[in-house]
Specification:
Two copies of one chain form a homodimer.
Chain A lengths: L22 H14 L12 H8 L3 H13 L3 E4 L3 E4 L31 H7 L25 H13 L15 H15 L8 E4 L2 H12 L5 E6 L3 H9 L3 E8 L2 E2 L1 H7 L5 E4 L13 H14 L2 E5 L23 E7 L11 E4 L2 H15 L4 H12 L2 H27 L4 E3 L7 E6 L5 H10 L5 E2 L12 E5 L5 H20 L6
Parallel strand pairs in A: 4-5, 4-7, 7-8, 8-9
Antiparallel strand pairs in A: 1-2, 3-10, 5-6, 9-10, 11-12, 12-14, 13-14
Helix pairs in contact in A: 1-3, 2-3, 5-12, 7-8, 13-15
């Protein structure tokens, strides 16, 4: 049973109002010092944020910020519904300096910890890795570069440059070129029943910027956000950077469960969800759960951020219409991207926002980076209008279906008993569950040494216990690569298998 | 003499801890209601944030946020060193609904005020206009589109697409392609004596994203930031969005005056400055002031954000070296852009950060938008390496010098006594001061009706009294356009002149 410090943790500490350090920095330093000195031992449960806020007469948000930073740095561990504990193993980077009141000597101040702000430290710890640029077996989340009609695109792009009119060379519409936004609106109305006018489409430089922009416009620091558990790391990072209080909500075979979410937080400000294809597990959100989310939004005013990242690639069953299309008075922001359907290098994605918010998103975009690159927009419009986009999607759907079937066949043949795989109904990757006792992070590290790319499943969980498995991309890998990759994967698996106990 | 409410403003109000509304929303609603009902009359001085924070036992930052929002919405006016007053004219959008605790009816909730967060409302009010895309006399801040070597660029870009290798089509380096960063580092070392290695160069999608990224990494909400008064609206907007407490510091003939700044705030977290060419007034920061800023950074740990936006175009005198080059242990972030030296449509700019922070900026970029567009980077590198960039800059410098001389000559001939102009030593615009009694915003509105673009000077001041003048761009306008523009300008001026009293 963990010891709880119920009060008095700051009995020998007082905020210095004259200090140039803000309150949270002083509190952070004091708590960290107490943990490192052993005054608050590992495993100790810390008092509730409300209690500490009262003790120090600061706002509860201040304490929440301090706890968040300590958690990100590994000093404390939060368990939903069970409080915050001092970590059993304090992080080894004890060298990480405190926030200095004033740099002691000018020669060290460039590297000193207060070089970054509290927000900046949190942001800089959220690195998103994107895997190697060169498509290897089994890099997930990238399309088939080898099958992209690069010559058609080059020709269109070169034409766009040759025929550019002078008035397009300056600063452009921050929400994107209206003709392209109209083409996207048509595409979404036809394919996803999304209810939108061109003015509601905001072009961004991809999903990551869409999440960042949405978080900054809809969220204040400390606001509660439901996230899928496990869920997409990119959106989690953007909302963490915006100061969200993340509430992980377990997914089951029907996707995210609103009833489970309500137990932790009945009125989230935002719900982050990928209904077409849950990331990473791949299930489709059931109609019943969709209705429940829409009802939650209607009754509490919660925003639903619908990430429809690769709805284009469905191999079995009919797609359900977008959540955005289900109700005209629920609060839904719809996200799409061209990184999967075309290429990541383009840096083009889009948001569909309610008419009442279109002007706000558009003006906020000017402050963030003025506007998306122009020539890519002009070329993409032509690519869509000439029918190349639709035919490319059709071709990729067929190609990816074959690639997945090949990969599943190979895995079932060579990794039976070690990796349990199921064909995905849609998308560009599948998830294999590892046999008990295999740590996915360690296994993926061993794979990397053998030249195989696979992403471990467990880091997509923000709470323990996580399931251990592999996220295997098949879209970018030609059949020969899939064969070679599975052989290497099987060799590493055999090595791990030998070291594990086997039940008779 | 304004009446001050010293205390008791919230005597009939208590925070509802059970409310789903955060504290700041409750306080905002209460204050706004009190002002609209006349309970706190126009002109009243509000109590200090510290006093109100104590009265409500919330953090001072909470009150500062509420005041900031009320100021942005026009309900209150802040005067540096003199407190915060209820505006004489309350804004007319009284319809703007309060933050609702819960939307009263689902049909209105999409448009209700709590659709956006507090931060989002502030962000959405910061729209940056960029002027018409089509270069007109006298749109400032845009280069000569008519003189851009569009054929060379098109050829390079088409080649880049034709020769692209597959491994470049995926997600790329978030800080930009290293060969381009190396080319920029060479360019800055040679031209601006900037002390940097390629790894310190972070490619962004332009200055606006550079400011946004810097603000989020170096600043926490409420941190004090010195800004030039008057100063650039783009950086002011990005730092406001990040929650900065802006401290306007008057510029004189030597630029920003650190001694004046210290009177208001001796230890700013950040100093925003354009030393090569102050925006919009155009003076160069003197060597003495540069030394003082470097000393301030060394002694207090303040960050200097050096915006070197159009240092390439200097017509007279020698440029002073960049602040960044003056000391290896001062904290300087250096910003540059290709929007002025090439074209805004490219969306490419860069930051030079200290080695110790390069990794943090790089990882933060992944969370914000992953990475800059790739093909533009490849094409720009070739444009630089083949010498096109250097020769384009040389040609533009000559062209702009001629255009400025033409414009100054015309203005002195046709607007003597009404508009006082001086040739700028560098840059792409000049500033003309209007004769007493002419309101620049009204005058520019009249010019717009006559088809002439000019930006009023007074909005670049964040405090009153502002000087009234015109910001006139000359770089983008061929001589015929300058002639026609000045004629129309003179006609509008004559109309205004007739309506003003004349001394003797």
């Amino acid at each position: 049973m963990a010891k709880t410090i119920t009060a008095g943790i700051f009995s020998s500490f007082a905020l210095n109002e004259q200090s140039p350090q803000p309150a949270y920095r002083q509190i952070y330093n004091e708590l960290r010092r107490a943990m490192l000195s052993g005054r608050i031992p590992p495993g100790t449960r810390l008092p509730a944020t409300r209690v500490l806020a009262g003790e120090l007469t600061v706002s509860r948000n201040t304490i929440v910020s301090v706890f968040d930073l300590l958690a990100q740095e590994g000093y404390v561990v939060s368990r939903v519904g069970a409080g915050t504990y001092v970590a059993d193993d304090l992080p080894e980077d004890h060298q990480l300096p405190e926030f200095d009141a004033r740099p002691a000597s000018s020669s060290t101040q460039l590297a000193s910890a207060d070089a970054l702000s509290l927000r900046g430290r949190a942001l800089a710890r959220l690195s998103l890795t994107s895997g190697p640029a060169n498509p290897a077996a089994f890099t997930p989340d990238i399309p088939a570069y080898d099958a992209f009609p690069i010559e058609i695109w080059s020709r269109i792009m070169a034409n766009a440059w040759r025929n550019i009119s002078l008035d397009l060379l300056g600063y452009a519409d921050p929400a994107g070129q209206l003709p392209l936004r109209a083409a996207i609106a048509r595409h979404l109305r036809a394919g996803r029943l999304v209810d939108c006018e061109p003015e509601q489409v905001i072009i961004t430089s991809g999903s990551q910027q869409s999440f960042d922009l949405t978080a900054r416009l809809l969220l204040d620091p400390g606001d509660p956000v439901w996230i899928e558990e496990p869920g997409y790391i990119g959106s989690r990072a953007a909302f963490t950077a915006a100061g969200a209080r993340l509430i992980p909500v377990k997914v089951d075979s029907e996707g995210i469960d609103p009833e489970a979410g309500k137990l932790h937080e009945p009125a989230p400000r935002i719900v982050l969800v990928a209904p077409s294809r849950q990331y990473p597990l791949g299930m489709t959100l059931s109609m019943r759960r969709r209705d429940a989310l829409i009802e939650l939004s209607r009754s509490t005013g919660a925003w639903i951020v619908e990430d429809d990242y690769d709805s284009e690639f469905r191999y079995r069953g009919r797609p359900l219409p977008a959540l955005q299309s289900m109700s005209s008075d629920a609060r839904v922001i719809y996200l799409g991207t061209f990184s999967k359907s075309l290429l990541p290098a383009f840096r083009l994605g889009y948001l569909v926002v309610p008419p009442a918010l279109a002007a706000s998103f558009r003006t906020a975009k000017t402050v963030i980076d003025r506007h998306p690159p122009l020539l890519e927009q002009i070329a993409l419009l032509e690519f869509m209008e000439k029918g190349y986009f639709a035919s490319h999607i059709r071709r990729m759907r067929q190609l990816y279906e074959v690639r997945q079937r090949t990969l599943v066949g190979l895995l079932r043949e060579h990794l039976r008993g070690f990796l349990e795989v199921q064909e995905a109904d849609s998308g560009m990757h599948l998830v294999g569950m590892l046999r008990d006792g295999v740590n996915d992070v360690q296994f993926c590290a061993a794979l990397a040494e053998a030249g195989v790319v696979a992403r471990p499943l467990s880091p997509y969980y923000s709470m323990q216990p996580a399931r251990h498995g592999l996220i295997l991309g098949f879209a970018a890998v030609p059949p020969a690569g899939l064969h070679a990759g599975v052989q290497r994967l099987a060799a590493v698996a055999a090595r791990f298998d030998r070291e594990l106990p086997h039940s008779a």
